[in-house]
Every structure is written in structure tokens, then in C-alpha cells.
Amino acid sequence: MASITRSYEGELKQKSTGRKTLGGFGWYEALTWAMLVTFLLTFLFIFIAPTDATLKYSQRIFYFHLPANIMCFAAFFVYFVGGIGYWRTRKRVWDRVMISGLELGLFFACIGIASGSIWAKYAWNTFWTWDPRLTTVTIMMVVYIAGLMLRNATEDPARKAALSAAFGIIGFIDVPIVYFSTRWFPRGLHPVIFLNGNNGPDALGLEGFMVVTLLTSMLAMTLFFVWVLVQRLRLEKMRDDVAELAYSLQDDNI
Amino acid sequence: MLLELSLKFLDTTPPLPSQTQVDNGFGFVVAAYAAVWILIFGYIYSLNRRQAKIRRDIEVLKEEEAERKEQLRLSQTSQKPPAVSK
Lengths: 254, 86
Known about the structure:
The complex is a heterodimer.
Chain A: H1 2-17, H2 27-48, H3 62-89, H4 92-123, H5 132-153, H6 157-171, H7 174-184, H8 209-253
Chain B: H1 2-8, H2 19-23, H3 25-79
């Protein structure tokens, strides 16, 4: 119990000095600064990138829409890995990974849907259509939201984690379906990005500085994903430590 | 296959956008980025709030632990036999 108290004394002291370190290293600070710098560069590049001939100025939404959706898949992969880890070991650390991956996956999916819907209003004259890509994304969201609701409805921690693991493993089946939906159902409205028979930048329909802008945006979004994942994992760790501290204090009372 | 068949019966092709809409892409870009940043800051704010709540809980538990230790120290002091003078 004393060691838990000391670790939180250390954490509170770090907060008051404004420096965040983990294990004596400043990597989290470096990550934060790198993320902010790449976001600034991304905004600069978005303004100076060439304008698309077909979609005109609206094409710039792509520089956030695509990275957000890729991070959504990455987060659900983290959830999937957490599910496998918990299934094999039954350790709480994997449950923390699961809930973090699930929440971040839904968050990035919302970003993708919001940006995509606004872009769709411009390009397709409608905020929503039952295009195969959008339909499979909806199914994926329903599955993961159901998993989150079921998790929140369960009181027992072990059962909660076991249910989450099941959803994480089975629900991940839908992620490649979402990705390949534009190829399996080519009559949809959503364009095929990557693996469309073209090579290099032509696979993206981009040229020149557009590719640089996209890569910078991808880097910024990846750094942001890692940053917010660390924050979310830290939140769960703090919850566990508080519960353990409260339990040990209760134990002393008995 | 089933999805493709069912899509045949649904009108998924909306009417083409007007020329004004095509020319006015800038407003949509601003709206999309505003939505993205509202979501990002909203989530970060939510995370910070939850962390702040847990820090408050930690403070309460620490105070409780300190009180417990003080009580234990006082009870141990009162039970200690008086020192014998030489």
C-alpha cells in the first residue's frame, strides 16, 4: 500500500512542476511536441497542396478522412490483440488494452464518419447513402457499440473482460470486410483507394506535393493515436490503482 | 452477393451536385475540419475530466490513509511503557 501511495505522490509532484516523465525518460514529452509540430506542418501543407481537378477544394478533407479511418482500424486491431492476450492469460493488463482500443476505435470512426459525411454532401449531394463501404462501416460500429454497452452493463470484472475479449476477437472479422467492401462491391459510390490496379501515387489518385501532405497527415494522426492511447491506458491504470488502494484501506478497517 | 442483390432494389445514386456546390468546396472543408477538431478536443476534454476525478479520489484516499497512520501512531505511543530514569 505504501508503494502505491508513493507512486501517486510522484505523479502529483510531476503534475505541479509541469513535466511528465515515465520511468525517468522524457519520451512522452517528445511525443507530444512531435505530434503538435506535425499537426502544424499538416495544416500548412494542406493549404499549399495542389487542388484536385475533379473534387476541387473539397479534396483536402481527404487528408484527415483517410488517416482517421486507418487509425480506427489500428485501434480495433489493438482491441483484437487485447482480446487475444486476455483470452490466453486472463490478466487485467489486457483488459486495459481492450477498453482503450475499443474506445479509440469508436472515436476515430466518428471522425471518419463526420468528415466523410460532410465530404459526401459535397461530392454526392447527400450526407448518407447505403453504399457498401458506408453500410459495412455502420455494421462495424453497431457491433462495437453493442460490445461497449454490454461491457458497461456487466458488473463482475472477470465476466466483463471475458465478454469484451469475445467481442474484440469476433468483431474484428468486420474490419477487413469494411476495407475490402469497395473492391468486392465495385458499383458503390465510395472510391477504391489502394490495390486498385495502379502503382505508387496513382493508387491514391494523388500527385506531387499531395503525397507529401498525405504522409505528413498520416504521421500526425499516428502520433496522435499513440499519444491518446497512452493517455487512455494511463486512465485505466489509475482506476485500477485507486480500486486497489481503496480495497487495502477497507482491508485495514476489517 | 446478397448485399449486391439487395442494393439493386435501392436507389443509391443521388442527383448530381449543382455548379455552385461544385465551386463552393471551401465551406465544406471548413465544416469538416471544424467537426474533426470539435471531436478531438471533446475527447481530450473528456479524458482530462475523468483523470481529474480519479486524482480527486486519490487525494481523498491519501488523506484517509494519513489519518489512519496518525491514529495508529498515537495508539502505539499511548501503549508504550514509560521510560525508567537512572
